[in-house]
Amino acid sequence: MKYNRVYIAGAGGMLGTYVKNAFTDSHILATDIDVNEDWLVYGDVRDYNSINHQINEFKPNIIINLAAMTDLEQCEVDYTNCFMTNTMGAINLQEISKQFNIPYVFISTAGVFGGEKEHFNDSDPTNPLSIYAKSKVFAENYLLKNYNSTWIFRAGWMMGGGRRKDKKFVNKIIKQIDLGAKELFVVDDKAGTPTYAYDFALSIKRHAETSLPFGLYNMVSSGDASRYDVACFIVSELGLDVKVTSVSSDYFDKTYFAPRPQSEQLITHKLNTTNKNYMRDWKVSLKEYLQTFKKA
Q: Residue 170 and residue 234: Cα distance in Å, rounded?
């Protein structure tokens, strides 16, 4: 099914531009509380009455919710706002989707697991450690029970957005390099699955338009990595004379104090078994993404 009227909430972040571009053949209303593009309009998912009025005027045939507080430390400190955005905001948009009887897309996280084992499939029991992860688990549990026409896609370590919008690991490494760092200290005791936002956005569109059964799916790039592995790949791919030194998480415990699982490695079991996994290997995707920084 083609969607000709697409409402995207939280479109001002690293994933938003990719999703907007994926649906470029549709009429889009892209919103965010941070109106940082001329194609964005203000929208606050925490304010039900306001967004309900906005969406009723636009009359979409699909709602895609990208709105989230994703800074784990900020979520630990400002937990009320975290739950209002990540949980209540998600519920608000689903209620409006239900009102229109249209599909709803929600983005969750690999962080919902507690790291008790090396890999996690779609149906493994969750055990969130951080406030951020708990806000996502509460949303997942409610959304799955409340409205059948809901897709939930769990992302891994997201990368994308370039210098201006990437607030995650890749750009943090690039910023250190830009500032002249000759040695990078990078954690090697946390494992995950990098997830390229560009591929993620295209996959959302493809799944929505090809009627993937509603439900919850792990959706990450293929291949496992530690933060150290990703940093080494960046330095090698950019051909830099920069030393990458592995350290334990304790090295950064004052800066990154939110609890994180030892492993956030996801298995895209449900998408693999239905032959609908469109995500590429993380090294292929990261190599492509790094061209963004070379051109800037």
A: 8
Q: If we measure between CA atoms, which residue out of 296, 268, 262 comes closest to residue 281?
A: 268
Kindly state whether residue 285 falls inside one of the protein's structural domains: no
Tokens of 19: 């999703």
pTM: 0.96
Q: What is the pLDDT of residues 112-132, one digit of tens each?
A: 999 999 999 999 999 999 999
| Mean predicted lDDT score pLDDT of the chain | 96
Task: Give me the CATH number covering residue 76.
Answer: 3.40.50.720
Domain contains 181: no
pLDDT digits (tens, 9 = 90+) for 228-237: 999 999 999 9
For residues 181 and 40, give the distance between their C-alpha atoms in angstroms, rounded to a whole number.
36
> Secondary structure of the chain: what % helix, strand, coil (to 5)?
45, 20, 35
Q: Report yes or no: 110 and 156 within 8 Å, Cβ to Cβ.
A: yes
